[in-house]
Structures are given as C-alpha cells and as structure tokens.
C-alpha cells in the first residue's frame, strides 16, 4: 500500500493555475471578501498585521461590485457602502427621504430594504465621489437601459413587425 494522500485544498483565480490560499479580508466589515494578492502580513511582537496595497481602490472595487450584484443589499453591505460614502445614517436618511432610524434598522437587519430603497441606495453610491469615474459610467448604462425599456413598453401600435437578419428573426414595434 502507498502513503495516504494529504487532503490538500487548491484555490483558483479565474482560469489560472492553482494559487496560494487567499486571505480572508474580514477587516472591511464584510464576511465574503478574499484577496489573492495585494496584501502583506507582517509579524510584530507575536501578532500578525496586514497591510493592503491601494486599499482605497480595493474598497471602491468592492463597493462597485456590491451595487452591480442582483441580490438585495445585506445589512453589512449597506453599512459598508455608507461608510465608503463617508455619510452618517442621518445624512443617508435625508438623501433617501426616510427616517434616521430606518437606516439604522436596515444596517442592523431589523427591517429589510425595499426594492425601491435598494435601487435608490445603489444610485446614491454610484453618484458619490468615491465611486468615480466608474459610478457615472454604470449609471449612464442603467439610464440607457431604462430609456430603452420605456420606449419598448410605450408603442404607438400593438401590431408587431418581424424582420429577418440572416438566420434569426427580431421583433420590432410598428410606430406611426
């Protein structure tokens, strides 16, 4: 019989070969952030200290990823984004036209963010200084999508016109 094989974990980043074990970056306040590189761990007096390269850019990237995700923002994500915008609960409440305690309850998980509040919160982050210039670009794409949906939902006629392009057919509304 041969030697027993070690149960070894392997981590992959994209299509790359197995990488070192990622660092679980809990310091940002979120439970699901891992770093493959861009960090340094130094030991001093028996304690490990972590330093992050370009921490502001990392936190911006995390924020942009959160607001592009399809799921409703979690309490920790709301708090993270608010912190990135350097806004108090009261300031966010004023901007979103809700009570101060509503924002506090969202962050504590006592009240779930409504769909409209979720979108408004995302837009607030995307328009903030910290999310630029990417935030403005994402907002522009969102607005263009909304414009197209409005045009599509407001036809001048209920008649449908189909046009063939090569081997595929595409529906177009008849106008006028």
TrEMBL record:
- Report the InterPro entries cross-referenced here: Cro/C1-type_HTH, Lambda_DNA-bd_dom_sf
Q: Which domain of life is it from?
A: Bacteria
* Residue ranges of every copy of the HTH cro/C1-type domain listed in the record: 78-114
The record's PROSITE patterns line, in alphabetical order, gives: HTH_CROC1 (PS50943)
This entry's Gene Ontology molecular function terms read: DNA binding
Pfam families found in the cross-reference section: HTH_3 (PF01381)
Full protein name: Helix-turn-helix domain-containing protein
Record organism: Mesorhizobium denitrificans
């Amino acid at each position: 019989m041969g030697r027993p094989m070690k149960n070894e974990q392997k981590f992959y980043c994209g299509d790359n070969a197995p990488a070192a074990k990622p660092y679980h970056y809990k310091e940002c306040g979120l439970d699901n952030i891992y770093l493959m590189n861009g960090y340094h761990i130094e030991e001093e007096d028996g304690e490990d200290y972590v330093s992050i390269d370009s921490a502001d850019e990392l936190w911006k990237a995390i924020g942009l990823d959160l607001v592009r995700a399809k799921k409703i923002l979690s309490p920790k994500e709301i708090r993270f984004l608010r912190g990135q915008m350097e806004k108090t609960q009261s300031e966010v409440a004023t901007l979103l036209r809700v009570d101060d305690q509503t924002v506090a309850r969202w962050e504590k998980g006592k009240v779930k963010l409504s769909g409209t509040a979720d979108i408004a919160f995302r837009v607030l982050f995307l328009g903030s200084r910290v999310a630029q210039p990417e935030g403005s670009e994402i907002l522009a794409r969102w607005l263009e999508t909304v414009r197209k949906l409005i045009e599509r939902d407001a036809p001048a006629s209920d008649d449908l016109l189909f046009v063939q392009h090569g081997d595929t057919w595409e529906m177009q509304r008849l106008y006028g």
